[in-house]
Design brief:
323 residues; Inosine-uridine Nucleoside N-ribohydrolase, Chain A; 13 helices; 11 strands; 18% strand; globular; binds beta-D-ribofuranose; binds calcium ion
């Protein structure tokens, strides 16, 4: 099993990432970051999720309350005031760890071989870890992120939420030398959940599956109210699934950096895919052979195509296994 630290801001879709990671990966710890909601709330939500699935053995370490430079932007219109509205759950009995999340990341990576990082919130903690101990770059196997986009944005026309919240951190991470695997919204918009998926969660009927149904019901409602989309996207679960089953996602190498100054484009992931041919960047790029990169050498790979059926089978199987 891959040894993984999950850095997240639960968040409905982050909760799905936790459920997938806890079952299929050696989840060394969960670190939290202010993003979808305050650090206090996202930490509580991580603890609640781990209690639902009976994995209170996985420690939760609170990280930074907000971005490196920018002011924190949250997303209550999608995730509610608690950051994970919908499911009715008791206050968690488990307490967060006293150690700072960034210290946990640095210490774990420096003392443990072959750690993979999975980040499903703003990249503040990861950037902070690199700043505190640059040597982690050579120690970490891979960094998978949910964030950015090869094409359009969701928070602004060009920026995805996680990158928009802390562009300076994202810039630091993409330009650090870490092996970044970017699962952007061009990919997660191939993962739409509807009422039929909620019905299947209810049919599975485990505690975890009912939790998944409650999460999806709320997320579907807020997505319908706030975005013109035909369902809700389990963004963060896609990134977790990529770590678990790399074959579920097809990706291509490219150079990616982050726009910090643009009047209209701050937080945009600028992806150089001029070496890939195809008419529709989200999907078709994989259909034809690539040429040599034309600009800077690729520093990342970007997810382009999701096996949605395979993803749902992984998710259903996971929810069945939790008693
Ligand atoms: C990302 O933003 C958050 O609201 C979600 O949890 C996900 O990580 C999608 O843009
Ligand atoms: Ca998230």
């Amino acid at each position: 099993m891959k040894k993984v630290i999950l850095d997240c801001d639960p968040g409905h879709d982050d909760a799905f990432a936790i459920m997938l990671a806890a079952q299929h990966l050696d989840l060394l710890g969960v670190t939290t970051i202010g993003g979808n909601c305050s650090l206090k709330n996202v930490t509580t939500n991580a603890l609640k999720t781990l209690e639902v699935i009976g994995r209170t053995d996985i420690p939760v370490y609170p990280g930074n309350p907000g971005p490196l430079v920018a002011k924190l932007v949250t997303a209550p219109q999608f995730h509610g005031e608690s950051g994970m509205d919908g499911p009715v759950l008791p206050d968690p009995v488990t307490k967060p760890q006293k150690k700072h999340g960034v210290d946990f990341i640095v210490e774990t990576v420096m003392s443990t071989d072959h750690v993979t990082l999975l980040a499903t919130g703003p990249l503040t903690n990861i950037a902070d870890a690199i700043i505190r101990e640059p040597k982690i770059v050579d120690r970490v196997d891979d960094l998978y992120i949910m964030g950015g986009s090869v094409t359009y944005g969701n928070w602004t026309p060009t920026a995805e939420f996680n990158i928009f919240v802390d562009p300076e951190a994202a810039y630091k991470v993409f330009n650090s030398g870490l092996r970044v695997h970017m699962c952007g919204i061009n990919l997660t918009r191939q993962c739409f959940l509807h009422q039929e998926h909620i019905d299947e969660f209810r049919r599975i009927g485990t505690k975890a599956a009912n939790f998944a149904a409650d999460l999806t019901e709320y997320f579907l409602k807020t997505t319908e109210e706030n975005a013109c989309l035909p369902g809700c996207n389990l963004h963060d679960a896609c990134a977790a699934a990529w770590v678990i089953c790399p074959d579920l996602i097809q990706a291509a190498p490219m150079h990616i950096t982050v726009e910090l100054k643009g009047e209209f484009t701050r937080g945009m992931t600028v992806c150089d895919y001029r070496h890939l041919r195809g008419s529709e960047p989200a999907v078709d790029l994989l259909r034809t052979p690539a040429m040599e990169p034309r600009g800077e050498e690729p520093n990342a790979e970007a997810a382009l195509e999701l096996d949605f059926e395979g993803f749902m089978q992984l998710l259903y199987g996971t929810l069945k296994e939790y008693k």
